[in-house]
Amino acid sequence: MGVPQKATVPSDLELLRDPNTPHVLRAEAVPEFAGLMMFPAMLLGPSVVGIALTGVVDGTSGLRDIFSRMCRVRVTAAQESLWYAVYAAALWLVATIMGMTNGNRLSQRELD
Fold this sequence. Notes:
Blueprint: H1 12-17, H2 32-71, H3 77-103, H4 108-111
């Protein structure tokens, strides 16, 4: 048996200089390409993993079921008009709130 070696723990400053440390922890801007590549991963990742896990857990019948549910939509005329009313109310609410907040901003000169 060999002699146990003492583990070396890098200091905080050494970690911040390490190129493998994320840019955010090093107080650097994230490169544009990295940000662009992060968006599809965040967008598609949960969907792909959900479909993959459905295939693993439920097999072919589960995949057939999930894809058939994605394509099937049944909406009556009353439900359709209700959704249009909900969308219109949400649009009106967002526009009203944005109009109220943008009009009441104080400039830096007014604060001095």
